[in-house]
Amino acid sequence: MNNNVRDLLKRHFDTAFSESNGIKKLRELILTLAMQGKLVPQDPNDSPAIEYLKKIDAEKKRLVKNGIIKSPKPLAGIKPEEIPYELPKRWEWVRLGDIGIINPRNEAKDSTVSGFVPMPLIPEGYSENHQFEVRLWGEIKKGYTHFANGDVGMAKITPCFENAKSCVFSDLPNGIGAGTTELHIFRNSFRSIVPLFLLYYIKNPKFILSTAPNMTGSAGQKRVPTPYFSSLYFPLPPLPEQHRIVAKIGQLMAQCDELEKLRIVQEQKRIAVHAAALKQLLDPNDKKKQTNAWRFLCDNFGKLYTVKENVTELRKSILHLAVMGRLVLQDPNDPPASELLKEIEAEKHRLVKEKKINQPKPLPQIKPEALHELPQGWAWVRLGEIGIWKSGTTPSRSNTSYYGGDIPWLKSGEVKQGRIKSTEETITQAALDKCSLHINEKGSVVIAMYGANIGEVGILEIEAATNQAVCACKTYTNFDENYLLFLMTSLKPYFISQGAGAAQPNISREKIVATIFPLPPLSEQHRIVSKINQLMAMCHELEKQINAAAGKKTELLNAIMAKI
């Protein structure tokens, strides 16, 4: 590597190390420099590549004359204007098919033990080490691609080609093998190339990017055509230089491996330290730990919140602090939660008396001694005490008169954090009347009870019915709907845990209404919602800053790479 390149990398190493794709780009740079003859110095004592080409030509003529191979079809010469870039002295641009055999065949007895290599056993990325299954040659010689030790194999089909599935075959039983038909094989019959040098060439993302547009076939079944593979431009250095380049690439890739491990360890430590601090901050029984954790987060804010994972955890912690009564100050002038519960109970009795609702089933009494201490004015209650919780059903699909009406119908997959303004499907009044459905009012909080979306919550901004996988709550009396949304969001891990264990995870309405939570006074609910919105906006800004910083690092790194 020349001194200018080395100096640039040293100056901007921190950028390359901290940028999310920095090490990946370093690997690409290493391979690009290698194929341009800029990774190791040239040796004037090396025989130039043109000499190898003369020997290859002479050997081909000898093999044809002796009937060992057929006369190969000549490939088009490389015109000066087609040359991708200038090569060092002693290097030559060649076509791959001119310096080896493309997609050869093996000859062996059927009883010969050999290696079978399906596509899953060929490595992706920069890995070189394939695996194989032991088979008899007679079992695999027909209908599969042939290869031997020292051959270079490259996946030709999408997405395996784009994923750099390729290898140098080695350690095959008796030196031969066969496998997936979705491979192109280069056999180094004339010993003009170090197989690993070719492997690094075809694993370079630049090569993959430039080759992909030349693939043919339908979407999902595109392939690199054999004529294209055979006609590939290839930069051929002297053989001793190939060995030096391969050794240098191996050394630098090993260093990239170590850098990648170090970066992962640093990221994991940053996440683990942050998680430990949040755990202490959320400890309801140790005020000293809470204070120390808060001081640590404040002192290290700039370092901790440079990764999105920590911002995500911060959002969760904000909600936990909110429902623990530790996000805003309590006001002794607020009417306590017990007063709110009296209002709720009075409204419930009124609705029962007027036969607008059935008498709710009594919920189990709460034992406060089993729970942590609450701020003054708060009370432990169950979700079923604060409102009416209803689910729905799915009208029969066979009855077309049930669908396509003007009543929104909400399914669990549509329940997302936030406000719900529309639904994918609508139902008719007939469905509402005959299928155990009811309309939920605007402002109802909904929760997904089944499947992958279990625990997701939202607020209806429309009147809507729900299917059986969604439960909706309309509170009896004054209650901040946004506070209930945040509360339910904070309870999502609990709901998920309650629904685990089945093939289709689900949490019943009974478990939802029995869930215990701390109820703050109504005035404090409003203050908490305001503070949460403020802090969530801050989290959003933090994420924007992380994205912007990452974008700047990417631009700088791309500029450095381009200059190199």
Report on the structure:
The protein has 18 helices and 20 strands. Helix 3 (22-35) runs antiparallel to helix 9, helix 9 (239-281) packs parallel to helix 12 (308-323) and helix 12 crosses helix 15. A 5-stranded mixed sheet has the order 12-19-16-17-14, covered by helices on one side. Strands 2-9-6-7 form a 4-stranded antiparallel sheet. The longest helix has 43 residues, at 239-281. Helices cover 42% and strands 14% of the residues. The protein has 564 residues and is of the alpha+beta class. It has helices at residues 3-11, 13-18, 22-35, 49-65, 137-140, 195-203, 205-211, 226-230, 239-281, 287-299, 301-304, 308-323, 337-353, 429-434, 481-490, 492-499, 509-513, 522-563; strands at residues 92-95, 101-102, 113-117, 133-136, 145-148, 152-155, 166-168, 176-179, 183-187, 233-236, 379-382, 387-390, 403-410, 419-420, 425-427, 445-448, 457-460, 465-466, 470-475, 516-519. Among the domains are: 94-234, Adenine-n6-DNA-methyltransferase TaqI, Chain A, domain 2; 357-519, Adenine-n6-DNA-methyltransferase TaqI, Chain A, domain 2.
End-to-end Cα distance, whole Å, is 11 Å
- Poorly predicted runs of 5 or more residues: none
Strand order of the largest sheet: 12-19-16-17-14
The CATH homologous superfamily of the domain at 357-519 is named DNA methylase specificity domains
- Count of strand segments: 20
Assign a percent range to the helix content.
40-55%
Number of helices: 18
What's the overall average pLDDT, rounded?
88
| CATH fold-level topology of the domain at 357-519 | Adenine-n6-DNA-methyltransferase TaqI, Chain A, domain 2
Task: Report the CATH architecture of the domain at 357-519.
Answer: Alpha-Beta Complex
Largest sheet: 5 strands, mixed
Structural class: alpha+beta
CATH class of the domain at 357-519: Alpha Beta
